[in-house]
Structure formats: C-alpha cells, structure tokens
C-alpha cells in the first residue's frame, strides 16, 4: 500500500471522529446532582443533554449565551460533555499574575472575592452573611471599623483595655452600669469617702 493511500485512510478515519468544538449555551439545568446543558454547536448542531464537568468543591450554573468547550466522548456528538465555559461580558479587571478572583456572573466585581498578591483577601458585596453553628474566631492584633457595631445579644463578660493616655481617650454617649466596683484615678467609686472640713471627719462610703 502506498504512502498516499495510508495517509488518505488516516484522514478518512479522523474525519469520522467528532473533534472538540466551541458552542453556545441555550440553557442550563442545575436542579439535580448533574448539571445538564442544552447547547448549539457548529452549523446549529444540537447538544441537548450534555453534562457539565467542574472541579470538586466548586459548583456554578452558567448563563445562557456563554461559550462552552464541548468534548464529544469517543468522537460522538451524542456523548458530548463540557469541560470549560467562558462568558467574556463580566470579569474582574486589574488582576496581577498569581491573583485569583471568584465572582457572581450576574453581579461581576460587585459580588466577588479576590485573592490579591501580598496575602490580601478582598470581599466585595452588599450583604455578607456568616453562618457558624459553634462560633467565629478572629485571631488578629487589630480590628478596624468605619461605622457602627450592633451586637444583638451579649451574655459574656469582656475586658476592654484602652492604652491611650489622652484626656478623652474613652467616651460613652449613654450611661454605665457595673456590678462590681469602679476605680477612677486610684479612688474607688464604691468605697470612697470625703473629708468634712467643718468638723474634720470622714463621710460614710456611698450607700
């Protein structure tokens, strides 16, 4: 058999095997364990029940109009699966090499988590909800807040240390209640007395 004939046979064999292609997503069904996609391939070729493969621990439902990369398993369009998906309309800009962004396809950077170089994690959203059944631990030397802190319930005793020596380092808009004694400039609020100049005696401590 001549080389030309062998080359033609190989070409014919490869031509009968469906190659990977770029398509267009029409709709996605993520109601079940497996995400099923309905798509169009080249020349309006239908893919009506292709499975979307994603990385473990990550599940996202793509939007209609996105461009999938379709792999026909065993060269058959009927066994097509999707291994990647691209939108192109929404993205997080100004990413440096090594940085990672996770964002909602409807909101873009307005609802995103960006892992910046320099050990910086940026979370951008309207409402951040954390549901921890046992507790939340923050191990940091400083917590900075630009606005108010509202605590609905406080059942534990906390120690507040103010290291500043400024005259008005600590201020309270409302009253202060203490179950124990309060010491101000070395003098006890509970046990302090006053000198009565007229008779040279001490008053009784506060009742």
Question: How would you sum up this structure, described in words?
Answer:
The model has no long low-confidence stretch (mean pLDDT 82). The longest helix has 13 residues, at 3-15. It is rod-shaped, with a radius of gyration of 34 Å. It contains one helix and 13 strands; from the N terminus they run H-E-E-E-E-E-E-E-E-E-E-E-E-E. Among the domains are: 18-86, Nucleic acid-binding proteins (OB fold (Dihydrolipoamide Acetyltransferase, E2P)); 90-128, no CATH class. The strands form four sheets. Strands 1-5-6-4-3-2 form a six-stranded mixed beta sheet, with no helix packed on it. Strands 7-8-9 form a three-stranded antiparallel beta sheet, with no helix packed on it. The protein has 207 residues and is mainly beta. The N and C termini lie far apart (116 Å).
Strand arrangement across the biggest beta sheet: 1-5-6-4-3-2
Q: How would you spell out the order of helices and strands?
A: HEEEEEEEEEEEEE
CATH architecture of the domain at 18-86: Beta Barrel
Q: What share of residues is helical?
A: under 10%
Q: Indicate the radius of gyration in whole angstroms.
A: 34 Å
**Termini distance?**
116 Å
Enumerate how many helices there are, as a single number: 1
Largest sheet: 6 strands, mixed
Assign an overall shape: rod-shaped
Mean pLDDT: 82
CATH topology of the domain at 18-86: OB fold (Dihydrolipoamide Acetyltransferase, E2P)
Instruction: Count every beta strand, where a strand is a DSSP E run of 2 or more residues.
Output: 13
Low-confidence stretches: none
CATH class bucket of the domain at 18-86: Mainly Beta
User: Which structural category do the helix and sheet elements fall into?
Assistant: mainly beta
Q: What is the CATH superfamily classification of the domain at 18-86? A: Nucleic acid-binding proteins
Strand content is: 25-35%
